[in-house]
What we know:
This protein is an alpha+beta fold. 36% of the residues lie in helices and 24% in strands.
Amino acid sequence: MTARPVRAVLYVAEGCHLCDAALEVVEAVRRETPFALEVVDITGDDDLEHDYRAEIPVLELDGVHAFRYVVTADGLRDRLHGGAVG
């Protein structure tokens, strides 16, 4: 199955060890299957803090919440190659 083009947004915050781990996983998978990635630091943004602080890291794929708290390489690969998102 061929990977589909995806736009990913990873919401993170300063000092978040889960965020650091998620970014490492996303970058590793991205080396295998390139996709657009935007990393958004929510620190100090009241609206983003309200929306994401309790669940970070949050990874959205094409605007849909795909992961929160933990991003797994196998799970991300599956979603990039046609698995369900959401």
